[in-house]
Amino acid sequence: MYILTFSFAAVSPGMYEVYADEYSSYVGKLNVSAYSDNLKTFYGEKPVAGRTVSAKLSMFDMGENIKIGDKVYRVESTLAENASENIMVYCDSKDAAIKYGLKTEKVYRKSPSERTAAKKDSTSNSKKSSQETKKTAQKSKSGSEKETSGSKSVSTHISGKSLGKFQITAYCNCPICSGQFAGKATSSGVMPKEGRTIAVDPSVISIGSKVVIDGVTYTAEDTGSGIYGNRIDIYFTDHAQAQSYGLKTKEVFAAQ
Known about the structure:
- Keywords: Signal.
- The protein is α+β, with helices and mostly antiparallel strands.
- About 20% of the residues lie in helices and about 30% in strands.
- The strands form three sheets. It has a six-stranded mixed β-barrel with strand order 3-7-4-6-5-8. It has a six-stranded mixed β-barrel with strand order 9-13-10-12-11-14.
- The radius of gyration is 20 Å and the shape is globular.
């Protein structure tokens, strides 16, 4: 019998070096860059340098701790699936982000059993910490709905043909959500607009088609590498609103 000891050396608030092989699952060599936009995280909090990273959710779980090189970070925001990077580390200044540059780093994660336990804790904490953010988002959404009331569907729209159940997420036009396409027009050539624009898989919903989700009529104007099959991304102007929307399953109807 032996005792495995762990040794941590503080580097800066929220960041620490790992000397023991706690993170035993090797993910691979991934492209890692940095950002400094002070946008709220998925949890409705300000990002913390040395702790916060944005990552592709096709690779990592929200709230998961991952080891990049010899430092451990926490996934607190999403990264666009079409981004050239797999992970973006938050820095507290633009100069620091530029200095970080683009690197190829060895990335590790905990074992599957440890990740499952951590994910349960993260989900529980997420519900508590994002409660106020959701309330704020709901108020903002209510105001947005008033502005876009002309685009809302009526009961006749709901009676349109059901397209089936879709997984619904949200995005905005910032570098975290839209990667290299941040600030640019949609795939259809128009600028995205809250209450109107959605990203779809063109093989499922044709570009230009109008669909009804929760009584609101949207137009399929955008696409994304992570949007395929029965998956829709709703556009929001505000990053915090997009983050707090989460992942939902909704029945989608063709607008009449």
